[in-house]
Amino acid sequence: MGSVGTPELIIILIVLLALFGGKKIPGVARSLGRSLNEFKTGLREEPTDAADESSPEQQN
């Protein structure tokens, strides 16, 4: 499998224009960018340790 070239990108852009229209594409791209940013921020945060949180069964 090869990489995505110029003809493939043009086809993808035409399909996006057909599906969303010209006015909605910037909003969709902005929303996608914000989602990716939040996802990356979530990956950088320290995960909480589930063992530190005690459940009601462990408190007895």
What does this structure look like?
- The chain is mainly alpha-helical.
- Helix content is 58%, strand content 0%.
- The mean pLDDT is 80.
Quick synopsis:
The protein has 60 residues and is mainly α.
- Could you say which structural class the secondary elements and strand pairing correspond to? mainly alpha
Strand content: under 5%
Major sheet attributes: none
Order of secondary-structure elements: HH
Give the count of helical stretches: 2
Net shape: flat
How helix-rich are the residues, as a percent range?
55-70%
Say how many strands there are.
0
Distance between the termini: 57 Å
Q: Give Rg in angstroms.
A: 21 Å
pLDDT averaged over residues: 80
Low-confidence stretches: none
How would you describe this structure in keywords?
mainly alpha, 60 residues, 58% helix
Give the helix/strand layout.
Elements: H1 6-20, H2 25-44
